[in-house]
Every structure is written in C-alpha cells, then in structure tokens.
Amino acid sequence: MAKFLIRWMLLAFSLCTSLAAQASGPLVDAAWLRQALASTAPPLLLDASPTRQHGAGHIPGAVSVDFYSYGAREVDAATMQARMRSWGIRHAGEQLIVIHDQGGTMLATWLFYELHRHGVAPERLRLLDGGLAAWKAAGGAVVTEATPAPPPGDVRVGALREDVRARLPEFLVGAGDPAGHALLEALDPPYYYGGAKFFSRGGHVPHALLTPTDDFFRPDKTFKPRAELEGLMAHLGVRREQQVYSYCGGGVAASVPYFALKFLLGYPRVALYQGSQKEWLEDPRGLPLWSYAAPALLRDADWLNGFSNTMLRTFSHSPISIIDVRPAEAYALGHLPFALSLPAERFQQDLARPDRLAALLGPAGVDPAHEAVIVSEGGLNKRSALVFALLEQLGQRKVSLLLDSVDDWGLRGLSLSKEPTRVGAKKPALDPTIAPVAYQAAARTVLLRGAEAAGPGLPRVYLALGAQPPGPALPGKTVHLPYGQLLDAGGKPKPAHEIWSLLAKAGLPRHAQIISVGDDAGEAAIGYVLLRLMGFADVKVGGL
Q1: How many CB atoms sit inside 10 A of residue 152's CB?
Q2: Is the pLDDT of residue 59 over 70?
Q3: Roughly how many angstroms between the first and final C-alpha of the chain, as a whole number?
Q4: pLDDT value at position 4?
Q5: Pair 461, 508: CB distance under 8 Å
Q6: DSSP-assigned states of every residue in 308-361
Q7: d(C-alpha 259, C-alpha 115), whole Å
C-alpha cells in the first residue's frame, strides 16, 4: 500500500511538473487548460470577469475574482493578503494560478500584475489566452452554478515588488525625456486626442505614445503573435534599452501593454504607473496634457517673439532660424525681425534634388542645428508645408510652422522690419548679425519618387488629399480625404480630436507605411505635416 501511494504521488508530481513545463510562458491555451484541470494537481483558476458575466457562464471550478467588487484602490498588505487567501492562493509549492477574463480585456492582465506585485512569482502565474471566448471556441464546458469557495490559502504578503510600479516623480522625468523613456497610453484615440475625458481634461501626457489595449489583441481576443508585437513596438520607436512606463486613466488598462512588453516580449525595464491620469491631473502644479502628439510643430507669435528678439540675440543666444517663404516682394514690405528671405519657389526649384538646397541654406544663415521656424501667409498652406518637408528631408534638427501671419504679428503690436536681415561676419561683441554656416546634417527619407518598393512589415497605405480621388490606381490601399476638411476656416489645423475623427472615418490605419499624395507636392506635404502633428510614426511625401 505504501509503495502504491509513493508511486501515485510521484506520478502526480511528474504530471504537474510536465504541465508546468508545457506552459513555460505566461500564456496557456484552452487545450492546455482542459488537460491541466483534469490532472491530479489542477491549477487554481481565477476568473477576473465581472460577477454578472461570471454568473452567466464560467469555466467549471473558476473562482470569481471580480475587479469591480474590490477595485484598484490601494490597500494595505494585510487586506490584500486576506483577499488572496480567500481566493485560495497558497504561499508556495507547485500550485499554478491561471487567470482569465472574457477575453481581450484589461481585467486578467490587471490581476496578473496585482498578484505579481504582491509577491507571487511569475513562474506560478499564467493567463488563458483569449479568455472565456477562446475556451468556448475550443468546445470547453461552461456552467452557471456558483463555484464553491476554495480552501483558504496561506499566502503571505510581505515587501511589495516596487520595481514594477512607477510613481509620479519618475514618471514625470520620463515625460520630459522621450529619448530615454517610452510612455505608453492604453486609452482609446478619442481620449488621447482630447475629444473625450475621464477627469477634468482630455488629452495625453506629453510625449506619450498611443497604444490602446486593442492594439495588442487579435480579433479572436488572443494576444497578437510575438513577431507582430515586436513589429508594432519597432514601428512606434520603442527600444529595449528605454525605460518603459504604461499608463491610462486609472491604471488598470495600462496592465495590457505592461504585460505584453514585460512578459510576452521580455523588455527589461517596464513599469506600470498606477496613478495614471487621475494622479497626474490631481497634482497641484497643473501638469500639462497634450491633444496633438507633437504640438511643438506649431508655433505662435508670442512664443517666437519670446525666443527670438533683439535683446536675446544680442546678449545671449537664440537657437532659432526664421525662414520667410513668402515672395521677396512681400518680405520687402515688412517681415519679422531676424527672418531670412527664402521664397518657397526657390525650394521648389530643387524639389527633385533637395541636397542642392544645403548650398543655399547655410550661406543664407540657416543653421541645421537650430529650430527652423517657417513664416508664410499664415496657417498651414502648400508653400509652408512643402518647405517643412524639404527641411526635414535635409536633416534640420527641428522644423516648425508659425501659424500667425506677418499681418497678425503686426496687429499684435510686435515690431516688423523692412531692412533685410544682416547675414555675415559678426562683430566682436553685442552684434545680432546672423553668421553664415556650413549646412551639414544627416539627411532623412521624407520625399519618395516614383513607385518605390514598400519596406518590410507593415502595409503601405496612400492618403490622397486632392479635391478628387486620384485617377491612376496607386500600388496599395488608398484613402481619399481632401486636405481642406482637416483645416479650419483660417487655414489652421483643426483640433486633434476632430482630425482623428475624420481620419478614422476615412479608414486610415494608425499602423502602416503612409504615403501622403495630392494633386501637387504642396497638397502632399500638407498631409505629411498633419500626420506628423498627430503622431503617425511612418509618414512620407509621395508622388513627386
């Protein structure tokens, strides 16, 4: 009898170990779960779905752990320990814990995060990929009878894993350092672009990337394959060496990108900012939210006058090159102080060879290490947009557009000049003359010529901005949206949420190689500027 019991125990241990080995990753499928539940050492199954959905049908043996019954509010270690014990979680041993929800939601990933942060080793945690939807699709049984309370667990909650949770001070540092950090917002686009809000204001934390939870799931509610998720992060420019923080409105939806990057992709430095927008907006400093993804592409008169004036240029330094792209005749009638006259027509002459422009820009006083602010007739127009794209092609460190016209500048009581801006050798001291430079910068790929082959990975999509749909069929999906619909009556970009609504209605995907085309190069360039403003990651100007 004793030998039989020993053999039975060894067999049970072997089966449990075998099942754990088969589920070495954090995700398990319905077939694995069915086998595991039928074993002699079944895992603890936790259903993170709302109580109403759990009662309408759940996997046999699933313990209801309804997020909405306890919420994301911070509790002390003793309270959390009591909760976890009531769910049947043991302190150690071979117990595996499988978590699921209805599939494709934030509830299972949040519970995974909470258990891990409170001391449960990730080797013991699994997520049912696709949740209850995948279980049903695989023919799994569903019951409505309440699951009996599990035997109380003996888990002990001690020191929490603080490395997986971001606090406001380091998150604030991350918002100001987009090179070293990646902030992932898990809310849907209307919230990101300011058209909807959970709290006092809509929008997103500065420099945050839009990564709603749907970006991580397939239509069947399972997580996208690793290669697809890796491609998404590469498309957004998220690098493994960066510190990654995920956030949302209240911290729960942020668990989806957190789980995907940390446990599916193995990014080494990932943390979840539980405070999220709620804490950010409650801060008495009045921390900012942006609606455009890159609002600094647009400048106004007050900003430019503050950072480019005679006193600053005489006694200090102003790293700004002002480029007036209006006709020379208009420049002569009055221009902004320190503006350089470089009519857009001169840029258009070298549209096919933008490298030739370097020989013009440097001697004219345009420094490639400066922010180049483009001055035009006002708003976003074909001339200013085309110069914007050409300067980015050349590798200018930063390019922006003054939305105010020269007339607007004067009406605000700001000074105008009729004398050409002096470019030449500077005197030894207190001389605001602009010195010519050697225009040397690393060129980027912004302008495409002809039917260049699409790069690997994401599909190529054409955004046609002319008044009429393009005649000849373009070699890829085409979305037609006349650019005038994206500008207000004064020619300025509409609010971000309105632009997003129009782009989404037209069917433009966020993740694609987008080629902006139009009836002429200026129209195509307007689309380029607008999509850059909205944070689209891969945009080019085509049809040149």
Answers
A1: 13
A2: yes
A3: 86
A4: 41
A5: yes
A6: S-HHHHHHS---EEEEE-S-HHHHHH-B-TTEEE--HHHHHHTSS-GGGHHHHH
A7: 13
C-alpha separations of 140 from 33, 58, 90 in Å: 10, 10, 27
- Which 3-state string (H, E, C) describes 248-296? CCCCCCCHHHHHHHHHHCCCCCEEEECCHHHHHHHCCCCCCCECCCCHH
455 pLDDT tier (thresholds 50, 70, 90): low
Average pLDDT (45-61) is 96
- Roughly what angle, to the nearest 10 degrees, separates helices 357-364 and 382-394? 100
- Cα–Cα distance measured from residue 524 to residue 469, given in angstroms and rounded to the nearest whole number: 13
Q: Cα 134 vs. chain centroid, distance in angstroms?
A: 28
Q: What is the pLDDT of residue 312?
A: 79
Cβ atoms of 136 and 30 closer than 8 Å: no
Sheet with 398-402, edge to edge strand ranges: 298-299, 398-402, 371-375, 320-324, 339-341
Q: For residue 249, report the phi and psi dihedrals to the nearest 5 degrees.
A: -85, -50
Burial of 257 (0-12, 13-18, 19+ CB in 10 A): buried
**pLDDT band of 23, cuts 50, 70, 90:** low
Q: SS3 of 371, please?
A: strand
Could you write out the three-class secondary structure of 79-136?
Answer: HHHHHHHHCCCCCCCCCCEEEECCCCCCHHHHHHHHHHHCCCCHHHEEEECCHHHHHH
DSSP state of 163: G
In this prediction, residues 158-184 reach a mean pLDDT of 97
- What does each C-alpha distance from 270 to 74, 238, 239, 375, 542 come to in angstroms? 20, 11, 11, 42, 37
Measured in whole angstroms, the distance separating CA 202 from the mean position of its chain's CA atoms is: 16
- Phi and psi for 422 in degrees, rounded to 5? -75, 130
Interatomic CA distance for residues 172 and 275, integer angstroms:
12
Burial 401-411 (b: 16+ CB within 10 A, else e): bbbbbbeebee
For the chain, percent helix, then strand, then coil, each to nearest 5?
35, 15, 45
Least confident of 15-29, 39-53, 241-255: 15-29
CA-atom Rg of the chain in angstroms? 29
What is the token pair recorded at 67? 């997020």
Number of alpha helices (DSSP H) and beta strands (DSSP E) in the chain: 21, 19
In tens, the pLDDT along 380-415 reads 999 999 999 999 999 999 999 999 999 999 999 999
Query: Which among 266, 199, 255, 254 is positioned nearest to 229, based on CA atoms?
Result: 266
DSSP run (H or E) holding 194: none
The Cα-based distances of 311 to 102, 164, 322, 430 in angstroms read 63, 48, 16, 9
9 pLDDT band (50/70/90 cuts)? very low
d(CA 485, CA 378): 17
Instruction: Give the whole-angstrom CA distance, residue 419 versus residue 338.
Output: 10
Across-strand partners of 99?
Answer: 46, 127
Element (H, E) at 247: strand 243-247
**If we measure between CA atoms, which residue out of 99, 102, 103, 101 comes closest to residue 113?**
99
**Tens-place pLDDT, residues 259-274:** 999 999 999 999 999 9
